[in-house]
Amino acid sequence: MTLFTREHLGPALLLELIPLITADWNEVNADKDIPFNLDLKTFIECEKLGVLRIFTARRDSELLGYSIFFVRHGVFCRDVLVASHVALFFKPEDRGSLPVRFVEWCDEQLRAEGVRMVSQNSLVGHSMERVLKHLGYVPRETVFVRDLNIASR
Predict the structure, then answer these.
(1) pLDDT exceeds 80 at position 30
(2) pLDDT tens-digit profile of 14-27?
(3) What is the pTM of this model?
(4) What does the mean pLDDT of the chain come to?
(5) pLDDT tens digit string along 41-100?
(6) Which of the 8 DSSP states describes residue 125?
(7) b/e for 40-59, b at 16 or more Cβ within 10 A?
(8) CA distance 118 to 125
(9) pLDDT higher than 70, residue 153
């Protein structure tokens, strides 16, 4: 049986998360010349501030996947609580319908705490667009990235 849970960041969870976060980075990182170097200090500070949300999926206590959000009031509309997606990852053998159900469950947890708007990221080359649209998400903006260490035209 798979169990979805909100967990708080602590040493035990970190030991479980770091291998999955590393696998996520290795799979989706488009900039192979930028080494993985997790900023644990920021995660710990955000946990202390109450803005970090870590949702996990487990089967028989084994961590299968996670979703991480920062939850805060909007910068331009401070009356609205917003959740900004940081990462979603499932082990390859646990992909399929499970992550879709998990995203729905995460949305319900965020709604229950008063979040109105949830933003989800979908990487080019690892698109979740079809799933997100199926769940009711709509595209709002396109993000462009420029590596300033590379000469431009």
Answers:
(1) no
(2) 999 999 999 999 88
(3) 0.92
(4) 92
(5) 999 999 999 999 999 999 999 999 999 999 999 999 999 999 999 999 999 998 889 999
(6) T
(7) eeebeebeeeeebbbbbbbe
(8) 22
(9) no
Q: What is the DSSP string of 48-111?
A: HHT-EEEEEEEETTEEEEEEEEEEEE-SS-TTSEEEEEEEEEE-GGG-SHHHHHHHHHHHHHHH
Q: How many CA atoms lie within 13 A of 20 on its CB side?
A: 23
Buried b / exposed e along 105-122 (16+ C-beta atoms within 10 A): bbbebbeeeebeebebeb
The rounded distance, in Å, linking the Cα atoms of 98 and 1 is 11
Judge whether 109 and 91 are in contact, CB under 8 Å. Answer: no
Residues 5/58, Cβ–Cβ less than 8 Å: yes
Task: Give pLDDT, residue 42.
Answer: 95
Q: Which two tokens stand for residue 150?
A: 């590379």
Distance CA(74)–CA(81), nearest Å, equals 6
Point out which residues pair with 117 in neighbouring strands.
82
Separation of alpha carbons 30 and 56, rounded Å = 25
